[in-house]
């Protein structure tokens, strides 16, 4: 009678293992009997007492087909091989059931055609704890699960040092494209072809040409009244300062090295110091002349051309002395600044080749020139009431007012862009244009009108009769008070008269002034 075939009896599923275990013991004893008691029916003396260790050896060697139709064998450890049926819970339109899709007997056997995945797809989903990390990522092990990890990007200026570590690139390096190593940061400087350089250079070239034209005109008409009235010596000094202001543009745009950086330290403040020292000496001279002329017939001290040059060069020497001290304390050098353009995105990072002149050092370098400029402005304000046709105070005043406006606009632009990625370009362009504009204001307001008269109205460039210092000053003051039209005298007439009177008075001994004064009193 066969269970399940000849009767309705349904056997419990674990009974087969009991039956197979009994058969395994029987097969082991049969094999042992054949070896120990060959040809003998029943037990022989060698099997009177069963050796369990020896019997276990025979049990592990059995190999027969069990009642389920599967082989019964044991491995080297005495364990039966795993036999598993693999089910998958599948949902169809009408049914939900566990369906056999494979089995395990020493190895996995799967029928992938019978498998079903969410979304009715045949693609086998990934069944691993963590995907391998891409280049430029480090593994962060999940706590308590050493076989699982999270992948973290080596971002910013980090690169992948090994599987589990990201490290920062050196200060002069940036990570490559996939953050697996570091590459040198590109070095940039202000190029001559850059739009930030073209405009300052164009202004400087035009300014130098205009300055040389004025110098050539003054040299050609050196002995004419207007040139004399402008103070030839100080004019040439002032024109030299203006020329250096324009020339500074080329130093600021040139590629930095030790030589160029040294020249920048010297000439960036020197050109402005020369210009404002000459203007300060001029306005101080005019102020002292008219103040003295109101009180005494004698000329003020130190108004001769030689004295004026000594005063001017003394003021300039202060600037040079400061630069020399700076060279002694901190020698000039070119550096590469990797912090100036160290952006959040490493791809945009650049090293800036520049001179070691900080913003504070630049202010100190220009500070003395600013002091001269402010002092000159104060004197220009004090002499604003002097008749225009008798001196250069008002043109100098307008020059200084305009210059102050230029530099007041420069300061917020220069320091307001200190955090900008374009800092190097903006600050260099702003500085060079401000210096050039200051020079252009002085050149245009002080010398272009004179050049115009000298070249196009030579009839106004003629000498007039000479009078004493006191007479000239008194006439100027009274003319301004009682005859407003007196200011319409031809340009240069009163100026040259005053200047020539001063030169004559400066050359005469003091006894001359005493005699003149006594004659006036009598």
TrEMBL record:
Protein name: Glutamate metabotropic receptor 4
TM helices/strands, residue ranges: 196-222, 234-256, 262-281, 360-381, 393-415, 435-457
Pfam family, one: 7tm_3
Keywords: Cell membrane, G-protein coupled receptor, Glycoprotein, Membrane, Receptor, Transducer, Transmembrane, Transmembrane helix
Protein source organism: Tetraodon nigroviridis (Spotted green pufferfish)
Keyword Transmembrane part of the UniProt annotation: yes
Annotated family: Belongs to the G-protein coupled receptor 3 family.
PANTHER family recorded: METABOTROPIC GLUTAMATE RECEPTOR
Claim: Transmembrane helix is one of the keywords in the record: yes
């Amino acid at each position: 009678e066969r269970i399940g075939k000849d009767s309705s009896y349904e056997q419990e599923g674990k009974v087969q293992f009991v039956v197979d275990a009994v058969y395994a013991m029987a097969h082991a004893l049969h094999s042992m009997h054949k070896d120990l008691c060959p040809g003998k029916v029943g037990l022989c003396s060698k099997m009177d007492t069963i050796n369990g260790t020896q019997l276990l050896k025979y049990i592990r060697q059995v190999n027969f087909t069990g009642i389920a139709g599967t082989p019964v064998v044991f491995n080297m450890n005495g364990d039966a091989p795993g036999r598993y049926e693999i089910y998958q819970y599948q949902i169809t339109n009408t049914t939900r059931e566990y369906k056999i899709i494979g089995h395990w007997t020493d190895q996995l056997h799967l029928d992938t055609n019978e498998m079903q995945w969410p979304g009715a797809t045949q693609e086998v989903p990934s069944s691993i704890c963590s995907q391998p990390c891409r280049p430029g990522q480090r593994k962060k092990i999940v706590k308590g699960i050493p076989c699982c990890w999270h992948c973290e990007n080596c971002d910013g200026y980090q690169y992948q040092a090994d599987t589990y570590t990201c490290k920062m690139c050196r200060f002069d390096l940036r990570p490559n494209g996939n953050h697996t190593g570091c590459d040198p940061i590109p070095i940039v400087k202000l190029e001559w072809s850059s739009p930030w350089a073209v405009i300052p250079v164009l202004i400087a070239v035009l300014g130098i040409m205009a300055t040389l034209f004025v110098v050539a005109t003054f040299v050609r008409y050196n002995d004419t009244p207007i040139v004399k009235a402008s103070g030839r010596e100080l004019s040439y000094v002032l024109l030299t300062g203006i020329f250096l202001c324009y020339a500074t543009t080329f130093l600021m745009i040139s590629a930095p090295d030790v030589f160029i950086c040294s020249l920048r330290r010297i000439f960036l403040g020197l050109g402005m110091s020369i210009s404002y020292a000459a203007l300060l000496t001029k306005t101080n001279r005019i102020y002292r002349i008219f103040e003295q002329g109101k009180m005494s017939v004698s000329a003020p001290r130190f108004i001769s051309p030689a004295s004026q040059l000594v005063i001017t060069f003394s003021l300039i020497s202060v600037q040079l002395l400061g630069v020399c001290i700076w060279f002694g304390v901190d020698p000039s050098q070119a550096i590469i600044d990797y912090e100036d353009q160290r952006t959040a995105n490493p791809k945009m990072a650049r090293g800036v080749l520049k001179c070691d002149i900080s913003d504070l050092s630049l202010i100190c370098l220009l500070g003395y020139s600013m002091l001269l400029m402010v002092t000159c402005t104060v004197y220009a304000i004090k002499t604003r009431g002097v008749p225009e046709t008798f001196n250069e105070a008002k043109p100098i005043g307008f020059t200084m007012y305009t210059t102050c406006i230029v530099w007041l606009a420069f300061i917020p632009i220069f320091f307001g862009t200190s955090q900008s990625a374009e800092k190097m370009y903006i600050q260099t362009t702003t500085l060079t244009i401000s210096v050039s504009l200051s020079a252009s204001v002085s050149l245009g307001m002080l010398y272009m009108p004179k050049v115009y008269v000298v070249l196009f109205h030579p009839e106004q460039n003629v000498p007039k009769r000479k009078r004493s210092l006191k007479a000239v000053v008194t006439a100027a003051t009274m003319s301004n008070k009682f005859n407003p039209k007196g200011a319409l005298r031809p340009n240069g007439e009163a100026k040259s008269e005053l200047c020539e009177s001063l030169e004559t008075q400066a050359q005469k001994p003091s006894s001359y002034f005493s005699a003149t004064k006594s004659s006036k009193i009598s």
